[in-house]
Amino acid sequence: MNDFLKFSLLLLALLLAALAMHLFILKELGLPMWDNKILLAYAINYILAVAIYGALYLLQEKMTSQLGFLYMGGSLLKFLFFFILFYPSYKLDGEMSNAEFAAFFIPYAISLILETSGIIKFLKK
Hints:
Layout: H1 3-28, H2 38-59, H3 67-90, H4 98-124
């Protein structure tokens, strides 16, 4: 199994586990489970992380010295998606609640950590 497939499956497993835990906590706290675009946040973070990792995986030998910059460009892309898809609805009431922040940040952080560790492997080669 190649590194890209391992990354994709590991990220999927981690995000599904995190989503299940996230929904459980929301339920236990009596908060709406499917608010704040939670499913979209997990899906977008997965898709973007896999796309960015996949692009870097394909370019790792051709553009080794530029991988760090390409990775930063991928991070910029994630921020753009956040500000276009999530931020406007999160700020409708004038503030971003903890539940709104968590809905986006938890899958973002998990994806970022796994992506970063994968990119570090590329750069070590």
